[in-house]
Every structure is written in C-alpha cells, then in structure tokens.
Amino acid sequence: MQLVAEQLSQLPFPHFYISDQFDVLAASKSAMDEFPKTTNFLELVDVGSYRKAKQFILEKPSTTPIELLLRSINNRHSLYDVYTLHEKQDRVHLFLFNKEREIEKVQEIIRSLETQLFNLNVSLLDKKVKLEKSLKELQDVAMDHDQLTSVGKLAASIAHEIRNPLTTVKGFIQLLKPYLVDIGKEQYANVALDEINRANDIIYEFLNSAKPQRHKKETVHLTKVLQDVALLYESEAILRNINISYIPEKNEPLVTLDTMQMKQVLVNIIKNAIEAAELSNAKDTFIRLTTHSDRERVTISIEDNGPGMSPETIENLFIPFYSTKEKGTGIGLSVCKKIIKEHNGTIRAESQLGKGTTFHIQLPLYNPPMT
Questions:
Q1: Does the pLDDT value for residue 187 go beyond 90?
Q2: Among 97, 100, 209, 223, which is most exposed with the fewest C-beta within 10 angstroms?
Q3: CB proximity list for 361: less than 8 A, separation 6 or greater
Q4: How far apart are CA 269 and CA 349, in angstroms?
Q5: pLDDT of residue 145
Q6: Do the Cβ atoms of 222 and 255 come closer than 8 Å?
Q7: Of 47 and 170, more confident
Q8: What pTM, to 2 d.p., does this model score?
Q9: 26 has pLDDT over 60
C-alpha cells in the first residue's frame, strides 16, 4: 500500500518517511516545525536509545509503539510514542506522538471535570440546606393538627420546588459519570447520586407521613457509610477552611443498619460540627471522624475543635425543642438519639468550653447466625 505524499505532509503530528538506513526521504510540515532539519532520523534519537530504535523500527511488522527520547528543535529531549508502517522492503513510515503533550491534555481534562464536580457538589449542598429548612417548617406546621390541610399543600409545593432542581443536578452528574470512571473519580459521582436519592426519599416520607414507614436494615461496611458522608461535606469544609478527615480502622467493622437513617444522623452531627468549627478561634479548624471496635461493638467518634459547650447544654442536648441556636428547632439531635436507640445503640457527647466537642455513637457489630 502506497501512501499519498501530499496527504502525509499535512498530518497534524510529526511524520518521517525513511530508508532502511534511517535516511530521511520526506517529512511532514509538523515534523519540520518540531524537529531540527536532519538527513538521518537517528540524529534525533537520544544516544542511549540507538540500539533499541534500530531494532524496533526495522522490525516488520510492529503492532505496538516504542517510546523514544527525541531531540526537538530547541535541543530539548521529549518522550514520544513512535509507530511504524512498512511500505516497501526498504521504506518505513514513522508516526510520532508527544507523550508529554498528551499527558498535559489529559490532566487539563481531569482538572476541568474536577471543577465541574466541585461546583455540582456545592449546588447540591445548597439544595440540601433549602430542603432541610423547608422540612423543619413542615414539622412545625404538622404539630398543629388543625392545619393538616395546609401541610398537604405545603408538602406538594416543597416536593415540586425541590425535586426539579435535584433532578437537574442528578442528570448532570450522570452525564459526567463516564468521564469520572475513566479518571478514577467514580466515587464522587456515586456519593452525589446517593445523597440526591436520599433527599428524594426524605421528601417521599414526608408526603406519606400518614402511612407507617418500613425502614430497610442491611448488613454493610461502616467504613463505606462514613467515607460517603465525609466526601459529601468535603467541598463545603474546604470552602469554610475546615479540614474534615476520616481515619478508618484496619479491619472494616460490619454493622446492620438502615443506611439512609444512619447517614441522616451523621449529616446532622457533621453539619453542627461545621457550624461550631466556624466559631472557633483555633488557627487550624478540623472535624475528625474515627472508629474503634471491640468484640461486640463499634464506636464512631466525631470530633471538632470548635468553642465547645457548657455542662448545662450537654445535659439538655438531646431533649426535644431545646436549642442554643437563634433559629434552631431543637429537633435534630432528639431525632438522632431516637434513630440510634432503634439500632440498639447509644449516643453521647463530651465537651469542654474552648476545647471542642466529640460525639460518640456506639453500635452493635454484625453477629452472624450460628450454623
């Protein structure tokens, strides 16, 4: 097969047409722009690669490229992938691709995807804040049984206003997911999609609050649940100059729980920790998640170095409607305690003014049935 010289000269990447003695018979415009003028291709090859280049280029046929360090027009050596195509017994086409340039393009794509995902996470967190605020309004209204009709109208309105933007965000994440899989960032998309589904489940429960709800418990790796929640708040923590970290155990603890409910508990506590850390006078603010297991139980610890709480606040912390926040309802932690109790666990807080707060959640480990 004979290639057309005019077409080869216009290739967007370097091309050389050489003899079996490596004499350059023709070169594309791109090759002339990128390499110094030469009569023999080996003059461009790094000295240490001569033997490898000779053996590979004259090998017929060759289905894979070779990596060669080649001298460019500015006398700088760059790494190239070199492909060969034998046209005659003593004629060879060389096609060159700059690996460093390709890597830079890939890195640029990765940076662009990470920026898009970061913006989507920030948008999702904003929607979640609006959702939580609206759901708290629902709870306040629902306490008055004479206003059940208004609750139904408000619930329908909230479902419409919140589900639409969440659906849009979910669509964008699903479009990005194949690219994230290619660059090893699939977990970001998975966590975002899980949290959107969780938000939709919460809306569904409120719309069907008159019906008894069946919570699905399953045996899961607690490490995965904690990693998902930490990753969810990673972007918000960065925006607020807070370092959020999770230090997993060597042996992943297995627990039986309702994942959605447990994430609700962790999100509530981490959200409070972020608000506390923002009020800290510490130079480096942090939120640290750790676990510790013994034979029968696992303890989740969520620590922050915020301003801490007084003994009176600690004593009343889990009492419904008790809140130290100006606009707080005092419902969040009481709901958390109820959920943990339903999982046969315990929750407590220890704190010192000026030194921060740590919440400890203790849960039973999975106990496989005897056979």
A1: no
A2: 100
A3: 265, 299, 300, 301, 302, 340, 345, 346, 347
A4: 11
A5: 44
A6: yes
A7: 47
A8: 0.47
A9: yes
Which pLDDT value is given to residue 272? Answer: 87
Residue positions counted in the chain: 371
Write down the mean pLDDT value for the chain: 78
Nearest to 305 by CA among 266, 348, 276: 276
Beta strands (DSSP E) in 213-276 are 218-221, 242-247, 254-257
What confidence tier does 148 reach under pLDDT thresholds 50, 70, 90? very low
The neighbouring-strand residues paired with 26 are: 17
Q: Which two tokens stand for residue 228?
A: 């998902």
8-state DSSP, 45: B
Q: How far apart are CA 287 and CA 281, in angstroms?
A: 14
Is the model's pLDDT at 111 over the cut of 80? no
Q: State the Cα–Cα distance between residues 85 and 99, nearest whole angstrom.
A: 19
Residue 39 three-state SS: coil
pLDDT bin (cut points 50, 70, 90) of residue 147 is very low
Q: Which of 21, 109, 13, 108 is nearest to 70 (CA)?
A: 13
Taking each helix axis from N to C terminus, what angle separates 259-278 and 332-342, rounded to the nearest 10 degrees? 140
The C-alpha atoms of residue 95 and residue 28 are separated, in whole angstroms, by 10
Residue 331 falls in which region: left (phi positive, over 0), alpha (psi -120 to 50) or beta: alpha
CA distance 243 to 265: 20
CA distance 81 to 64: 9
| Tokens linked to 43 | 């003059």
Q: In the predicted model, is pLDDT for residue 357 greater than 90? A: yes
- 3 state SS of 132: helix
Structure tokens, 16? 């050389």
CA distances from 352 to 266, 304, 305, 311 (A): 21, 11, 10, 8
Q: How many CB atoms are closer than 10 A to CB 357?
A: 25
Q: Name the one residue in this structure whose structure tokens are 């004499």.
A: 23
Strands 24-27 and 218-221: unpaired
